[in-house]
Amino acid sequence: MIGVIGAGAFGTALSVSLAQAGRDVRLWTRDPAHAAEISRTRRNDARLADVTLSDKITPTSSMTDLAGATAILISVPMQSLGGLVHDHAGFLDGTALVACCKGVDLNSLLGPTGLITKACPNSPCAILTGPSFATDIARGLPTALTFACQHDRAEALQHLLSSPALRLYRTDDVIGAELGGALKNVIAIAAGIAIGAGLGESARAAVITRGYAEMVRLAVGLGARAETLAGLSGFGDLVLTCTSSQSRNFSYGLAIGGQKSFDAKITVEGAATAKAVARLAQEKKIDMPIAAVVAALVDQKLTLNDAIRSLLSRPLKEE
Fold it and tell me: What is the predicted pLDDT for the residue at 63?
């Protein structure tokens, strides 16, 4: 049995994929009424519309129902992860835990595996990340992800969590995989701003390219391998989120660029991550002008016109 904590779109989609591969899944949500509704309707339309859940998926609001799981996938918003693993550490510690969220924690400046390891030091820990939309996974469309971990159960877990349509590629560069998934959300906001402000496709291409350079600089500065950022969890995810309106981060940037309102109830991981990354870059003395501008716009410390002017007035230099 595999446990999945978080019955949002991505957690539900992963549950569907695992069930399609013949795995028994326990899908945890903190709301008993939500668990009961999913059990009754076999759907989770509020989070992932038009997908029927098989009988292999058992919704629950009791963490103890995940006891005995071979592995537990944690798919909750990044800024909620620290509190969740802290509150349930007594139950979770010792079980193989796989983070399925992307970002940098605002309080600790840790990534997902750092937060999990801090709360659950006896748990083998990994991260599942890369270019994917929940709807594609749930529909069984071909998707390739990075599975990053450094313990001896890596290969077994890779095979356990893969399916014919969901292909996992293994790496031991956890820092690189984490930062690729986190930083691409910040650049996706910037790409959305460029399109929303009417700057054109060429400007978006420049944002993606220079944004990728920023991603590599910070990741390598924090101990990652540059080649990891060239893979699924970095470049692959960057392309997807910077070019599709399905991306919440790109859509959020579109709203900023077009000076329109955005639904505050929608989780935009890149907004908080931009602020955390700006602090990290400052501490490490790493130049990240795009991330800094996004953070300032999110905090409303910079107007859109000033942000554009700031980036366009950067010194001319070698690429």
Answer: 96
Residue 184 appears among annotated catalytic residues? yes
**Are 203 and 152 part of one and the same domain?**
no
Query: Taking each helix axis from N to C terminus, what angle separates 289-298 and 174-196, rounded to the nearest 10 degrees?
Result: 60
28-42, 266-280, 296-310: the lowest-pLDDT one: 296-310
pLDDT of residue 72: 98
Percent helix, percent strand, percent coil in the chain, to nearest 5:
50, 15, 35
Give the residue among 43, 88, 83 at the shortest CA–CA distance from 65.
88
Question: Side by side, which strands form the sheet with 2-5?
Answer: 57-60, 25-28, 2-5, 71-74, 97-99, 125-129, 143-149, 166-171
Neighbours of 64 (CB within 10 A): 8
- Classify strands 125-129 and 143-149 as parallel, antiparallel or unpaired: antiparallel
**Number of Cβ atoms within 10 Å of the Cβ of 230:** 15
Residues 246-268, buried b or exposed e (16+ Cβ, 10 A)? ebbbbbbbbbbbbeeebeeeebb
Kindly state whether residue 218 falls inside one of the protein's structural domains.
Answer: yes
Residues spanned by the domain of 157: 2-172
Query: Which of 102, 118, 184, 284 is an active site residue?
Result: 184
Q: Report the distance separating Cα 265 and Cα 307, nearest Å.
A: 25
